[in-house]
Amino acid sequence: DAGVIQSPRHEVTEMGQEVTLRCKPISGHNSLFWYRQTMMRGLELLIYFNNNVPIDDSGMPEDRFSAKMPNASFSTLKIQPSEPRDSAVYFCASSPMGRGGEKLFFGSGTQLSVL
Amino acid sequence: GESVGLHLPTLSVQEGDNSIINCAYSNSASDYFIWYKQESGKGPQFIIDIRSNMDKRQGQRVTVLLNKTVKHLSLQIAATQPGDSAVYFCAETRSSGGSYIPTFGRGTSLIVHP
Question: How sure is the predictor about B93, in pLDDT bands with cuts at 50, 70 and 90?
Answer without folding.
Answer: confident
